[in-house]
Write a structure and sequence with these properties.
4 domains; flat; alpha+beta; 30 helices
Length: 910
């Protein structure tokens, strides 16, 4: 028996083809899911980083290396440093100092010479919005011909092909937008007045190849003119003027010396396809090296002592890293829970096969087979099925999720395949390490567990309790990251061990008084359910772990959805908001009321510039109809209040303190003014006296921390006209609302605002992975329950057959199996609810869902906390009960169809 031979394997596979196919399907599915998880993780983390980099402005996500002419250089050296060949040489050196894994996209990178400030152009034909002359930015970018197409004219050239600092005439090209906005065309002449006057002739009009790319977006004024204002005192914007860009010939850099201050620049655009979330640490180090580390020292020693590096890429990486760190513990919880349940199912599948072949393996041991030989043959038999199935699952995962790392997926699939291969041999080795001639009846169970099992369970329970205590003391974010991932498993292990020990005790206590009942079904079901068995531990652990992951995952997804809904509600104020800058036009309210889905429409007049008597503070003042607005506040749960408290008293609304309007105020305003009357100056010059009678943190009409709400009828006539409509209703039609509002009103919907909070693939990817993990847990938990019931199927069928020979009817047999399954399913369901609630309470202090919900660390609704979701606790428990009862009913029906003769055979010892 020491060698593994092919005939054994082939014979055993032919003897049970159904079991082999079932194992292959289970291994292939599990290997596919295990290999898909790290690849999905890679894909959405990479997409999140690339999206973060692409959405950042071009002047922030790139690395800009700049160097002014060295102080003290003679004219010849200064001119030489601005020539194209020296710039290209320095560009190659800069590229060589970029550390891996930061990869530069040379197609969108740029370098050249540009003026550091714009210079005025006195031409009268250039547009002058407020009478000020336009200004021009002079730049000599390299490789211009590769990033633009000629629309008219030609590219600028240098007379003689080379220039110095003395020329006073230059050629330049402009983009289509510059030409259209500043009324330029081929042949136009622009005089710019720097330290000396330069005459620039426009020789061509260009169309950028990729106007949104980094080449044209780092300094957008070279592509699109900008309307700027002269700085003035606060509240008094200065006059405006146009600034445009003139694109000189690549070698025209030296000609700018002595006319305008210039700088050499090398802008490095990162390659988005080379950005990977797993490289976040090395990427941060590479950027830091360029900003203030060894790479910068190399640039300063080679290019110029005054070389400087500026970038916003480090902020982009830091923001992305914060979002990834906040979602990481949640994904780890889902992965550990789903992995544990899948591993338990694989072990149960091996155990079921070992139980089915117990008699065969016991006979082999009795005839002299060694444990090693049996284990080797079983390993070969299982590997023939599991290894191709695992390879198939890996291949499906690789094809379904391309563009991610191979090695993590390969190791995950190998781990699944190895566990599937070893489950049956190890189970057989443990069960048959001693030779047994007769095992006795399989439906009999020991009333007490062995000492070894007791010691093992106590050891595991103590370790799990210790880990949970450490996790609770440190919190989810304070050095207990590995324990956070194992929280569902730890809680599930503790609950499974306790339930396996405790649930038979009350059943045994009920068995004795149940004997007095009429009929044998009830007492027999209680007697059988009250037996202890170690085989119930694995399925119970799978169920409880799945319950915990489902409850935790459901609570996470529910908390994220609630946080987004609350933030959107606080931002909009209702289900929809229509706002007009100059007051609501006649008929708009009636048109909005008729829009599809609108249920209630509440008017409000908001003065955003109301001031305190000293004029130092600005408050938001909302004038409303108290009763309608109170109903809206109660419906939205945004600072509900009794409407009668704000109703205008007789004579209120003037300037006398005794006739002050009652007001609802924010906590900050109430703290400053208390309950004494005070006067407000309205933006139209009028005044009103108010007295705070209610304090609320939120209110629908306005947002922020400084607001007042009063009865609109108490305000001076025409002072604060209605300019806001707040709508409530289901399935509001955004198109119909915008059509009814027309061009005079802006429409914001709560549903659209909510959608803006999901702006990163890292958020949506984490939610999808978590939902998939919860679904996988549910599927494997159902499979674990089915395997648990199937392992006792043959014994139950034989029992029913014996009882039917003694007069038990088929209906009584169905009731017996259902009643026998309920005492085990009910504790599992209740224990699942308890473990799910305990895991959420355990992890909630250290988990902040704000970043996952909002993509930022702040939210209008404050911190999004993890709370237990009742539906996530109740639905899995009910599903387990329904599945257990359904399987027991089907099993009893199937056994009844086969008949007693098929189940009871001569010499049967089950």
């Amino acid at each position: 028996m020491s060698s593994v031979t092919a005939p054994w394997v082939r014979t055993r596979l032919r003897a049970a083809p159904g079991a082999a196919v079932a194992l292959a399907v289970l291994v292939a599915l599990t290997a596919c899911l295990a290999a898909a998880f790290p690849r999905a993780l890679d894909r959405y983390t990479d997409a999140g980083l690339r999206t973060a980099a692409e959405r950042a402005p071009a002047d922030e996500n790139g690395v800009l290396v700049s160097a002014a002419p060295d102080f003290g250089e003679d004219a010849a050296d200064a001119e030489a440093g601005l020539r194209p060949e020296r710039l290209a040489e320095a560009y190659r050196f800069v590229l060589g100092n970029v550390e891996h894994p930061l990869v530069v996209d040379e197609r969108q990178s740029s370098y050249g010479v540009r003026a550091t400030e714009s210079v005025p152009a006195p031409e009268r034909w250039l547009p002058r919005p407020d009478g000020l002359p336009a200004a021009m930015v002079l730049a000599a970018p390299q490789e211009l011909e590769g990033h633009a197409r000629l629309r008219s004219g030609r590219l600028p050239r240098l007379t003689g092909g080379r220039t110095g600092a003395s020329p006073t005439e230059l050629e330049a090209a402009v983009t289509e937008e510059t030409a259209r906005t500043l009324h330029m065309k081929t042949g136009s002449v622009v005089h710019v007045s720097g330290h000396r006057e330069l005459t620039v002739r426009i020789t061509g009009v260009l169309a950028p190849e990729r106007p949104d790319g980094a080449y044209w977006s780092v300094d957008p004024v070279l592509r699109t003119p900008s309307l700027r204002r002269v700085p003035g005192p606060p509240g008094d914007p200065g006059p405006s003027y146009w600034v445009g860009g003139l694109l000189l010939a690549p070698g025209a850099g030296p000609a700018l010396l002595g006319s305008v201050p210039v700088v050499r620049y090398w802008n490095l655009a990162p390659d988005p396809e080379a950005l990977h979330g797993r490289d976040l640490g090395p990427l941060t180090s590479a950027v830091a090296s360029l900003e203030s580390g060894p790479a910068l020292q190399q640039l300063q020693s080679t290019i110029s002592p005054v070389a400087d590096v500026s970038t916003g890429l480090d902020d982009v990486l830091a923001t992305y890293g914060q979002l990834r760190d906040d979602t990481g513990p949640l994904i780890a919880v889902a992965a550990s829970g789903a992995g544990t349940v899948a591993a338990v199912v694989l072990l149960m599948a091996g155990g079921l096969t070992g139980e089915r072949r117990r008699a065969e393996l016991a006979l082999l041991r009795a005839r002299g087979a060694s444990v090693r030989g049996i284990a080797g043959r079983l390993l070969a038999e299982t590997a023939v099925v599991a290894v191709p199935a695992g390879a198939l699952g890996l291949g499906v995962a690789l094809l379904a999720l391309p563009g991610a790392r191979l090695l993590p997926a390969l190791w995950a699939a190998v781990a699944v395949t190895a566990l599937a291969c070893l489950a049956l041999p190890l189970r057989a080795a443990l069960a048959h390490h001693r030779v047994r001639v007769h095992d006795g009846r399989r439906d009999a169970a020991s009333p007490r567990a062995s000492r070894r099992r007791t010691v093992a369970e106590l050891t595991v329970a103590v370790l799990a309790l210790g880990a949970v205590a450490v996790l609770r003391r440190r919190g989810a974010t304070d050095g207990a990251g590995d324990l956070v991932a194992m929280a569902p498993v730890l809680v599930g292990v503790i609950a499974a061990l306790v339930l396996v020990r405790l649930y038979p005790l009350p059943l045994r206590g009920l068995a004795r008084p149940a004997r007095r009942l009429r009929g044998a079904v009830g007492p027999l079901a209680l007697a059988r359910a009250g037996r202890t068995s170690a085989s119930t531990l694995l399925p119970l652990l799978a169920l409880l772990t799945a319950f915990t992951v489902a409850a935790f995952g459901g609570s996470v997804l529910s908390g994220v959805a609630d946080a987004r809904d609350r933030a959107a509600l606080l931002t909009v104020g209702a289900d929809a908001r229509v706002e007009a800058a100059e007051g609501l036009p006649d008929g708009m309210t009636a048109r909005i009321r008729q829009a599809s889905g609108a249920r209630e429409v509440t008017e409000a007049g908001v003065d955003y510039q109301a001031r305190t008597p000293d004029g130092r503070q600005t408050l938001q003042l909302a004038g409303v109809d108290p009763d309608a607005y109170a109903a809206l506040a109660g419906h939205t749960d945004l600072g509900a209040f009794p409407g009668g408290r704000l109703t205008r008293p007789d004579g209120a609304g003037g300037g006398a303190e005794g006739a002050a309007l009652p007001a609802l105020a924010s906590a900050a305003v109430a703290e400053r003014y208390g309950d004494r009357p005070f006067q407000l100056r309205l933006s139209d010059g009028g005044a009103v006296t108010v007295r705070i009678v209610l304090v609320r943190d939120r209110t629908p009409a306005v947002a922020g921390d400084d607001f007042l709400v009063v009865d609109r009828s108490g305000l001076p006539a025409g002072a604060v006209p209605p300019n806001v409509l707040l709508l409530t209703g289901d399935d509001l039609d955004a198109v119909a609302l915008r059509r009814a509002a027309g061009d005079l009103g802006t429409v914001r919907l709560r549903s659209e605002e909510r959608g803006t909070y999901v702006d990163s693939p890292l958020q949506s990817g984490a939610e999808r992975v978590y939902a998939a993990a919860v679904a996988a847990c549910a599927g494997y938990a159902a499979l674990a329950l089915l395997l648990s019931l199937a392992s006792a199927g043959r014994e139950r069928a034989a029992l029913l057959a014996r009882l039917r020979t003694m007069g038990l009817t088929r209906a009584q047999g169905r009731r017996l199996l259902v009643l026998e399954s309920l005492p085990q399913a009910l504790p599992a369901a209740l224990g699942g609810i308890l473990t799910g609630w305990a895991a959420v309470r355990l992890l909630s202090p250290g988990i902040d869902l704000t970043t996952l919900a909002m993509s930022t660390a702040s939210s209008p609704a404050g911190r999004a906390e993890l709370r237990a979701d009742p539906w996530s606790l109740a639905v899995p428990a009910v599903a387990v009960l329904v599945l257990a009862v359904g399987v027991a009913t089907v099993q009893a029906w199937w056994s009844g169809r086969r008949g007693a003769v098929a189940e009871l055979r001569a010499g049967d010892t089950r």
